[in-house]
Amino acid sequence: MWEEQLKVYDELVSKCPRFVRKGKTMPYTSANGHMFSLLNKAGQLGIRFSKEVQKKYIEEFNTTIFRSYNSIMHGYVLIPQNMLNDLDNVAVYLNESFDYVMSLEPK
Q1: Distance in angstroms (rounded) separating the CA atoms of residues 84 and 29
Q2: Hey, what domains does the chain have and what are their CATH numbers?
Q3: What are 60-85's pLDDT values in tens digits?
């Protein structure tokens, strides 16, 4: 299950040439010193957005805030499994998240 989700995550990130996947045991993407996507140990994908966009997407995607290692990941939206059937669409959201963290003060 997790290995299959990792392949999906890698395929998703490969659709976004402006950044690469990092992390061996905890796959993630980051830019400007800010992490903006993460695959948790349950194989769930979380993508980071601004507070306003996060609220909108939680309603639009009929989902919740992302959790990883029993922690609430503030700013991250849990991407529903059914959305991963259209990685081109999810790549749009991942690129939007990249643009968001690039607008933040570098860490």
Answers
A1: 17
A2: 2-102 (3.30.1460.30)
A3: 999 999 999 899 999 999 999 999 99
